[in-house]
Amino acid sequence: MEFQRAQEIIDSPKEYEVSYNGVSIWIDKLHDDGKTATVHLRRSLEERSEVDVSELKEEYLVQ
Q1: Phi-psi region for residue 30, left (φ > 0), alpha (ψ -120 to 50) or beta?
Q2: What triggers expression (predicted)?
Q3: In this predicted model, what pLDDT tens digit does every residue of 27-52 receive, in sequence order?
Q4: I need a surface site. Which of 21, 30, 46, 48 has the fewest CB within 10 A?
Q5: What are the DSSP calls for 1-63, one per residue?
């Protein structure tokens, strides 16, 4: 995913399905370096990781 698209997803009032390594995640924060984000698994609010935005994948729009 491109950084700009990740920002659009965060700013949107709609809910998007995003995955990292095939696992559904939430994007918590995009970092100022324009390359990384803090994410957490949808099922675990406490386990957060810093990942490359390029490794995130938009799956589909949740209606």
Answers
A1: beta
A2: Expressed only in the forespore compartment of sporulating cells.
A3: 999 999 999 999 998 877 678 999 99
A4: 46
A5: --HHHHHHHHH-SS-EEEEETTEEEEEEEE-TTSSEEEEEETT-SS-EEEEEGGGEEEEEE--
Q: Tell me which residue of 20, 15, 60, 24 sits closest to 42, measured CA to CA.
A: 24
Q: Which two tokens stand for residue 17?
A: 């399905």
Q: Spelled out in words, what is the top-level CATH class assigned to the domain 3-61?
A: mainly beta
At 61 the pLDDT is 60
**Reported pTM:** 0.84
